[in-house]
Amino acid sequence: MNRESGAAPSRAQREAAFHDARINIPDESRFNYAYRSVADVYRFCSVPHECRRKRVLEVGCFRGQEAVALTEFSGHYRGIDISQAAIEYCGALGLPGNFSFCVDDANVL
Fold first, then answer.
1. Higher local confidence (pLDDT), 77 or 6
2. How far apart, in whole angstroms, are the C-alpha atoms of residue 34 and residue 20?
3. What is the DSSP string of 62-92?
4. How far apart are alpha carbons 74 and 51 in whole angstroms?
5. CA-CA-CA-CA torsion for 26, 30, 35, 41, nearest 10 degrees?
6. Taking the model in full, what pTM does it have?
7. What 3-state DSSP class applies to 100?
8. What are phi and psi of 80, to 5 degrees?
9. How far apart are the first and last CA of the chain?
């Protein structure tokens, strides 16, 4: 997602910059409707016992709230986000070694 000198930023670069700028805003009510509506339906923190050693890919991990809620999870968790700031934030959460985070664009997976 490196930008060439003088080139207009791509949609992915604009999206990354949007999320980078919001990583440290504590008041999520400032976020648009998408964050609030997703919060109502996007919960996988209750992992059935038989699935606790599986793999989880969270697309759009942002601040890692779901990862933190899965700390008893013994499988491999990978969180991806288009925002470098989000990945750095998640990396600083101190989660166990079976949790990893990386920058990726889910639009091209």
1. 77
2. 16
3. TT-HHHHHTTT--SEEEEEES-HHHHHHHHT
4. 9
5. 80
6. 0.70
7. strand
8. -120, 150
9. 14
Tokens describing residue 48: 């059935």
Give the list of residues 6+ apart from residue 32 with CB closer than 8 angstroms, or none: none
* 24-79 pLDDT, tens digit each: 877 555 555 455 545 554 555 667 778 788 998 999 998 998 899 887 889 999 99
**Amino acid identity, position 89:** Y
Query: How far apart, in whole angstroms, are the C-alpha atoms of residue 91 and residue 51?
Result: 24
Long-range contacts of 88-91 (CB under 8 A, 24+ apart): 89/23, 89/24, 89/63, 89/64, 90/61, 90/63, 90/64
44, 56 Cβ separation under 8 angstroms: yes
Sign of CA dihedral 75, 68, 38, 47: positive
Q: Which amino acid is at 62?
A: F
